[in-house]
Amino acid sequence: MNPNPSMAPNPYSRQCPTRLVLDRIADKWTVLIMGLLRQRPWRFNALLREIDGLSQKVLSQTLKRMERDGLVHREAFPTVPVTVEYSLSALGETLAGSVNVLIEWSETHIKAVVAAQQAYDARQSGARQ
Amino acid sequence: MNPNPSMAPNPYSRQCPTRLVLDRIADKWTVLIMGLLRQRPWRFNALLREIDGLSQKVLSQTLKRMERDGLVHREAFPTVPVTVEYSLSALGETLAGSVNVLIEWSETHIKAVVAAQQAYDARQSGARQ
DNA sequence: CAGCATCCCAAACGATACTG
DNA sequence: CAGTATCGTTTGGGATGCTG
């Protein structure tokens, strides 16, 4: 698919496979899920309860994509009813710290962002008069 | 909006303002744009040409959001026709390195991801028979 | 418990035309 | 050049019901 397989990956090119990867890891649910899996393994419904606003359908899709991309490991235990545990793969571990930085940045700089938004909105409504 | 303003921010809660911030910075276009602005200031149409697959409409929306969030600075020069330059704000600088790690991760681990995808797909088609 | 299948709606996006 | 405005389509996602 990459028109220049011999060249270095370039996510600014539409066909580059790194673009597909970036599309997925630069995703809010992926970031939040990895933030939890970084702590310990989680079960499906535990993740669902923990992440407010995430629907069962989207969690299912996201976990499946992450499993396909090799970021998470899925293990089903033959209990009744079945128990499924999600954990980070070795590959996922290499990414987890990086995405967690985004969560930490949000927490650290939230006040500055909200202040910037209010200043921007005030400028706009003032300019519009 | 945050039901517990006295508590630490918690992006896993739907109402937490950090969630809104995370929604925006964990976005593929934002990551790619910041990756470029990190190098030097860019003009609107230069960004548009550089980022393959990004439409004018979405670039416009994304830059406006980033400006409102205080991540980028927009400066218009009174030339004819007008010249507009986008650059990182001080706040944006604090984030730029972190998001760039995601781009670098994509480039570094793209082979492992594609291999994982192929292995997954092979398992699936095999299991389906 | 851990999902999948279906229906349905709202938001996102591309394409196009137009403007200071 | 650097956008805005509108429109039609596509996609994502919620809600619900069902299954191993």
Automatic annotation (TrEMBL), chains A, B:
The keyword Membrane does not apply. Residues 16-114 form the HTH hxlR-type domain. GO terms for biological process: regulation of DNA-templated transcription. GO terms for molecular function: DNA binding. Pfam families: HxlR. InterPro entries: ArsR-like_HTH, HTH_HxlR, WH-like_DNA-bd_sf, WH_DNA-bd_sf. This is Transcriptional regulator. It comes from Candidimonas nitroreducens.
